[in-house]
Amino acid sequence: MARPDHDNAEAFVRRMLREGIADLAPVVTATLGGTGRPDVTERTPQRRFVAATGLTQGAIRQIHRARQAAVLIQEGVPAQEVVHRLGHFDQPHLARSLKRYVGRAATRLATPDTALPLSLPYNT
């Protein structure tokens, strides 16, 4: 497999997980899956999640929501509808989220640029 870069990093990580080279920490799997650990306090999984991923659960939810918004906008859904569907406060909130996590504004996503393909990496 080629050296991972900006465009194929996610596929590289999926392959590493599939082949058992890397594995998610159990707390990350449990937290993302919604199953808690009843034998510890609420804060313990939060700390372990940040230690394992480098991101908070809230940050991962925001990244996921920004990616969903980018896909919807590329499909032609109006920005105001995306705001309503995904629970953004208003259009400026959506715009900041897209700019931060996807790297493009809604108007640039709505008009596809074939010279610059959209990759949805986890930008932070």
Task: Explain what you see.
The chain is mainly alpha-helical. Helices cover 57% and strands 0% of the residues. It is built from seven helices and no strands. The protein has helices spanning 9-18, 26-33, 43-53, 57-74, 79-86, 91-101, 106-110. Helix 4 (57-74) crosses helix 6.
Features:
mainly alpha; about 55% helix
Estimated helix fraction: 55-70%
Summarize the biggest pleated sheet.
none
Following the backbone from N to C, one meets helices and strands in this order, namely HHHHHHH
Number of strands: 0
What is the residue-averaged pLDDT? Answer: 76
Strand share of the residues?
Answer: under 5%
Q: In summary, what is this structure?
A:
By secondary structure, the chain is mostly helical. The chain is built from seven helices and no strands.
Write the layout of secondary structure elements.
Layout: H1 9-18, H2 26-33, H3 43-53, H4 57-74, H5 79-86, H6 91-101, H7 106-110
Helix pairs in contact: 4-5, 4-6
